[in-house]
Amino acid sequence: MTEDLQKRIRKLAEERDALIISHYYCVPEVQDVADFVGDSLGLSQEAASSDKSVIVFCGVHFMAETASILCPEKTVLLADIDAGCPMADMITAAELKKKKEELPGVPVLTYVNSPADVKALSDICCTSANALKVMRSLNSPRVLMTPDRNLALYIQKFIPETEIILWPGFCPTHHRVNLKELKELKKEHPAALVAAHPECQPKILEEADFISSTSGIIKFCTESDRGEFIILTEEGVIHPMRKKRPDKVYLTPQTPLVCPNMKKNSLEDVLKCLETLTPVIKVPEEIRVPALRAVERMMAVPRD
Ligand code: 13P
Ligand code: SF4
What we know:
Elements: H1 2-15, E1 18-23, H2 28-33, E2 36-38, H3 40-49, E3 54-58, H4 61-70, E4 75-78, H5 93-102, E5 108-111, H6 116-119, E6 124-126, H7 131-138, E7 142-146, H8 149-156, E8 163-166, H9 172-175, H10 179-188, E9 193-196, H11 202-205, E10 210-211, H12 214-223, E11 228-232, H13 238-244, E12 249-251, H14 267-276, H15 285-299
The structure holds 1,3-dihydroxyacetonephosphate and iron/sulfur cluster.
1,3-dihydroxyacetonephosphate binds at residues 39-41, 85, 113, 127-129, 171, 199, 213-214.
C-alpha cells in the first residue's frame, strides 16, 4: 500500500514537473518519497534553486510561505493545508508594529517560524542553523528577536555585547521536554550524549552536550565516534539517522517530542496535491517584496 502510493506519487511528480520537499519532522514514508529532506533553511534553499515549476511542501504553513516568497513564479503547494505552527501563531503583524513603535531604531530579527506579514516588518530573518551568525551580522547594541524566546535566550549567551529583547513565543513541542525525565534518562544511560534543539528551554539546554538545528543534530550524531544519544528534538529526525547509522542507539524522553502539525502531512495528501495542484500557498506581492528583503538578507549570511 505505502510502496504503491509512493510509486504513484513519484510518477505524477515527474508528469507535473514537481519537486517534493519534506522537513525531517514529517513521517518516515513522506520523507522517503521526497526529492529532498532537510531543515527549514535547507528546504528554502532547495526550493529557491530548483528548476521545477511546482514545489510540493511537506512541512508547515510558514515554510511553504517562505518558498512562495523566494519563488513567486513557481506553484507552491502545501501537502496539508491544516499544518500550521503554533509558535508562528504567537506573533501577528499588528503586535509587531506596536512593539516597533515602542522601540524606535531597534532592528528586528525574526525566526523563519513566523507569518509572512511579520517577516515583511522585520529587518532580517534567521533559522536555528544561522541565528547567532545573523545576530552578529547586525552588529547592533539592541535587537528585538521574534518570536522564539528560547532561541533568543540561547544565543544571548554568545553575544553579551548585544541586548536581545525577547518576544514571548515558544514551540510547544520542544518546550515540553521534562527536566526530571531527562535527568532519569541520563542516569540510566551515562554514556549517552545529549543533542538538543535550541527551541528547548534554557534549563534543558544546560543538560545538553550539543545544541544545534535539526540538520546539525543529525550530522553530529551520525558522524560522532560515540554510539548512544539522547535526542531532544522532534523525533522525526531519528528516521534519517537510523538510515545513515543503524548501528547507533537513539534514545528519546518518556514524553514523546512530536509535532502534530508536521505529522499531518500524509502520502495521501501528497498524492492529492499532485492530482489537483492544490492547495496553493501564495504570498501577496505587497507582503512578499518586503518579506523577501528580510529572507534574502538572511540567505546572504553564509551557513556552517
Ligand atoms: P529547523 O529545521 O530550523 O531546525 O527548525 C526546527 C523547527 O522547529 C521547524 O519548525
Ligand atoms: Fe512549529 Fe514547533 Fe512544530 Fe516546528 S516543531 S513546526 S516550531 S510547533
